[in-house]
Automatic annotation (TrEMBL):
Belongs to the flavoredoxin family. This is Flavin reductase family protein. The keyword Flavoprotein applies. It comes from the Bacteria. Its cofactor is FMN.
Amino acid sequence: MDTAPTSSHPAHQDPAHLEIRPPVLYFGTPVALLSTENEDGSFNLAPISSAWALGRTVLLGLGRQGQTARNLADRPNLVVNLPAPELWRAVERLAPLTGRHPVPPGKPHGCRFEPDKFGAAGLTEQPSRGVRPPRVAECPLQLEARAEQVRPDGSGEFVIVEAVVGTVHADARIVVPGTDHVDPAAWSPLVYSFRHYFGLGPELGHSYRTRTPRTQAAPDSPADAEPRRVPD
Ligand SMILES: Cc1cc2nc3c(=O)[nH]c(=O)nc-3n(C[C@H](O)[C@H](O)[C@H](O)COP(=O)(O)O)c2cc1C
């Protein structure tokens, strides 16, 4: 049963928070560039930001009409390439392009067909180890993967992809030397927040679960203190 409000402001009318209807809900997730294989054996490349990891699986949200969704339904191998912040202009060059011909009706105004996405973006194909789609050489993290499930979402507009990651390639400059750990102090994703691009700010702290070995002494840590760990 609802409780009657006791002040002049009902509980849901918090004056510090406005009720708004934002046109998008992209609250800030990393950009990934998906390389996939087209019907004719050429390769497509598409930016997405609806991606997150669950163990060894990366979940992807894709527009149903796009070439990437079509490719993964038929040829499930892909590479999830993760660009650093300085690649944002290359990402944005890909934004109005589709690998699908003719351009499907649901695509935004101004969207055009482009068969050579790598060339259009000024990015370099790099052969993968275990899948046909190439990696993006400029991306510091490249996850070879296979779409094990491609299914429609509830609205029918999108597909949800479960991609199981195989080989992971990391630029040597973001790896803690001699380990399998990505150094979070050296790596920054490109973050897409309400259709604007950002990098990460300074580190705030770390999870109690981190196992990343120390890469540098914290400025105020005594010499005999526990090694500083940074989040993984
Ligand atoms: C930064 C950024 C993030 C995007 N995120 C997504 C996304 O999460 N899912 C999606 O389907 N499209 C996303 N898009 C739009 C696709 O890149 C766009 O529809 C593109 O035409 C798809 O190419 P394709 O048809 O060749 O697959 C994003 C675009 C940009 C620039």
